[in-house]
Amino acid sequence: QVRLVESGGGSVQAGGSLRLSCAASGVIFSPNVMGWFRQAPGKQRELVASITSGGTTTYAGSVKGRFTISRDSLRMNDLKPEDTAVYYCMLTQRGNDYWGQGTQVTVSS
User: Fold this and answer.
1) Which residue(s) pair with 50 in the sheet?
2) Which residues 6+ apart lie within 8 Å of 97 measured at CB?
3) pLDDT at 57 over 90
4) pLDDT digits (tens, 9 = 90+) for 81-102
5) Alpha-carbon distance 41 to 84, whole Å?
6) For 94, which DSSP code?
7) Which helix (H) or strand (E) holds 31?
8) How far is CA 55 from the centre of its chain?
9) How far apart are CA 66 and CA 78, in angstroms?
10) Contact 49, 61 (CB under 8 A)
11) Which of 16, 22, 88, 93 is a Cys-bridge partner for 32, taking CB atoms 3.0 to 4.6 Å apart?
């Protein structure tokens, strides 16, 4: 069993930065994929960024150039009001998905 715990959310003004962390415990296998998703009120959950155990990264077009994913964190720069959402980390391994509880990010204009 894998447990994921996010931290680092909060409220910032537009143009500010936040760093979200995802602490993973349990048995982690390779290969795997770690991802960050977000869900804004009234919207579907969407993939923000992902990174494989080999280090390959992908980003949603809306965050490319502003967000940087690593194996245990998501660095968010130049935040915009449309980035406001609950952010979740997720680990996929051996056909199983594991989710954290989410952390709120609020960006004011």
Assistant:
1) 35, 58
2) 90, 91
3) yes
4) 999 999 999 999 999 999 999 9
5) 9
6) T
7) none
8) 15
9) 6
10) no
11) 93
